[in-house]
Amino acid sequence: MTVRTVRIAMNGVTGRMGHRQHLVRSLLALREQGGLDLGEGTVLMPEPVLVGRRAHALESLAARYGLHEWSTDLDAVLADPTIEIYFDAQVTSAREAALKKAIAAGKHLYTEKPTATGLDGALELARLATSAGVKHGVVQDKLFLPGLLKLKRLVDGGFFGRILSVRGEFGYWVFEGDWQEAQRPSWNYRAEDGGGIVVDMFPHWEYVLHNLFGRVTSVTAHATTHIPRRADERGRPYEATADDAAYGIFELEGGALAQINSSWAVRVHRDELVEFQVDGTEGSAVAGLRRCRAQHRAATPKPVWNPDLPATERFREQWQEVPDNGDFDNGFKAQWELFLRHVALGTPYEWDLLAGARGVQLAQLGLRSSAEGRRLPVPELSL
């Protein structure tokens, strides 16, 4: 067995997502399982090099997981010829400049989204990386969730017939931070720091809709700030300048309509924190993070509206569970494995910086639609 090491500079891993999902549940999990099997007797072993601004946090994280290398000097790390991949999970406002440095250093790129604070910057990154000949990928983790994988199986199998509509509900109550600690960092609620639910979630909705149902061709959105005043990590009050809820309608190539509500100011009354209902001429399905339930045309009951009598039907029991039919790994880890194979073997990989730019475009147009109060077309992007 040949073990090939790939050294990965991981910037922003002291944050929630970078730490839990990308470091622990992806790369360290890969190491614990003995590396990534590339076939023909070769195993790829990821070797994280932690990068960030806070030395004490990096040192503590490295010690906790038995890692030996960390640095607060990004330039020095990028100058190291043994580093092959640069990964970015920083705050959005710091990401674009760091990615440009990594491209100039000839590193392959894997990054969280949004890739930049505006469409021009996102497209420039895609052009620079393509011109430099480096491989590049953007995290689009929800495509690898068990619920959405089952939903895609139904789509690919023609279960729905002609798809009519997609309805999505996402969100939960994020505490204001005054009497209970908030579950999200305060920068998420400051527009000047790159915060806002539109720039956070619309890129997700773009790739989910694009990959499962078709390209988004227009957007109508209303973004708002329901909770205008919050308290930060030190308990200090601040004005929320970014949107914490957005209500969007997306027209899709092929004629289907998608309506997705996103909110950090909603209390959950559904089975999962995100759910999508897809209705088609031949059947419907409801998918969440893990579960997917379906109802075929032939098995659809005939409900009758009668407000004078209590409903006796248990509607949720009339749906059939879509089976797992396999084991599902952590979605972040699954996409990391695909990107590492892309780097090591040159296997096809479609979730690149251009795909990331589409997410930035949709967020930008969503905010503009909300500000102008009108429907906006979503032009197709190219390099």
Q: Supply the helix-strand structural class.
A: alpha/beta
Total strands: the figure is 18
Shape: globular
Output the strand order for the largest sheet: 17-16-15-14-8-13-12-9-18
How many distinct helices? Answer: 9
Report the average pLDDT across residues: 96
- Quote the distance from N terminus to C terminus: 41 Å
| Largest β sheet strand count, sense and barrel closure | 9 strands, mixed
What Rg do the Cα atoms give?
A: 22 Å
Proportion in β-strands = 25-35%
Would you write up a description of this structure?
The structure is a single chain. The protein is α/β, with parallel strands linked by helices. The chain is 32% helix and 26% strand. The protein has 9 helices and 18 strands. The protein has a 9-stranded mixed beta sheet. Strands 1, 2, 3, 4, 5, 6 and 7 form a 7-stranded mixed beta sheet that branches. α4 runs parallel beside α5 (119-132), α5 (119-132) runs antiparallel to α9 and α7 crosses α9 (353-372). The longest helix is centred in the C-terminal third of the chain and has 20 residues, at 353-372. The protein is globular, with a radius of gyration of 22 Å. The protein starts with a strand and ends in a 6-residue tail after the last strand. 43% of the residues are buried. The mean pLDDT is 96.
Task: Write a short abstract of this structure.
It is built from nine helices and 18 strands. By secondary structure, the chain is of the alpha/beta class.
Helices and strands in order, then pairings?
Layout: E1 2-11, H1 16-32, E2 36-39, E3 42-51, H2 55-65, E4 70-71, H3 74-78, E5 83-88, H4 92-104, E6 108-111, H5 119-132, E7 136-138, H6 146-156, E8 163-171, H7 197-212, E9 216-224, E10 229-231, E11 237-239, E12 245-252, E13 257-263, E14 274-280, E15 283-287, E16 292-296, E17 320-321, H8 331-345, H9 353-372, E18 376-377
Helix pairs in contact: 1-8, 4-5, 5-9, 7-9
